[in-house]
Amino acid sequence: MTTLLALDTATEACSVALLHEGRVLGRYEVIPRVHAQRVLPMVQELLGEAGIALSAVDAIAFGRGPGAFTGVRIAVGVVQGLAFALERPVLPVSNLALLAQRAHREQGVGQVATAIDARMDEVYWGCYRLEAGEMRLAGAEAVLPPEQVELPRLATGDWFGAGTGWVHAGRMPVVPAAVEASLLPDARDLLTLAGFAWQRGEGVPAEQAQPIYLRDKVATPKGAR
Q1: CA 160 to mean position of chain CA atoms
Q2: Is 132 left (phi over 0), alpha (psi -120 to 50) or beta?
Q3: Nearest CA to 83 among 75, 93, 71?
Q4: What is the DSSP string of 31-44?
Q5: What is the C-alpha to C-alpha distance for residues 207 and 156, in angstroms, rounded to an integer?
Q6: Residue (of 119, 120, 124, 123) closest to 94 by Cα position
Q7: CA-wise closest residue to 58 among 187, 189, 191
Q8: Beta partners for 63?
Q9: Are strands 160-162 and 178-180 parallel, antiparallel or unpaired?
Q10: Rounded CA Rg of the chain
């Protein structure tokens, strides 16, 4: 039976989850700017609770962004360090997808418009629909001003708004049936999405554990602009 470790530090929340022998264990804390100090101790706590060594992990999943630049880099650095040492594959998963999966788990919704506050008067945006238990991207993820967000072409039915970007709801042309602007990604939902990715054989080598910023200019070296 597959053992998966998942961690996310891309937003104000720091979370870790472990799937072992069909049981899910998790830690979730909203601790801005303390992720680097807490994420590895949280991993050790879960391994201790499960009674296994890190070497028992088959693959490591992580929230690849979009999100806070430093937070995403922390996740990538930790995952690469662990995966290289263990010689295990990694499973990168979108943080917008994590939000949609959490909204489905907690609210039972099947169509979610996710928005993470990207600062600089913009939001990270993505729309997701439920397919066989998995929230799948409908359209494309983007970073853009709140006034420019939109639902997928030919979208119908009710949509649920999830994520901190919805603090700008008054400026958005999209009007969901309900909104939860305090929702943050949780590694338990990362495990769910990583499980689907693992079944599809989407694990990649540690060196391919790369962040997704959407706002490309943030990660572009000065000389390449």
Answers
A1: 17
A2: left
A3: 75
A4: -TT-HHHHHHHHHH
A5: 40
A6: 124
A7: 191
A8: 93
A9: parallel
A10: 17
Backbone angles phi, psi at 10, to 5 degrees: -80, -15
Furthest-apart CA atoms within the chain: distance in Å: 50
Indicate the residue type of 65.
Answer: G
Residue 169 Rama label (left phi>0; alpha psi -120 to 50; beta):
alpha
Distance (Å, whole) CA 9 – CA 38: 10
Confidence of residue 119 (pLDDT cuts 50, 70, 90): very high
User: Which residue type does 109 have?
Assistant: V
- Judged on CB neighbours under 10 Å (0-12, 13-18, 19+), 167 is middle
What's the token pair of residue 51? 């009674």
User: If you average pLDDT over every residue of the chain, what do you get?
Assistant: 95
pTM of the model: 0.94
Rounded CA gap, 207 and 193, in Å? 21
Q: List, in order, residues 6 or more apart from 200 with CB less than 8 Å away.
A: none
Q: Could you please report the per-residue DSSP string of 105-126?
A: HHH--SEEEEEEE-STT-EEEE
Confidence of residue 215 (pLDDT cuts 50, 70, 90): confident
The residues that bridge with 131 in the sheet, in sequence order, are: 134
SS3 22: coil
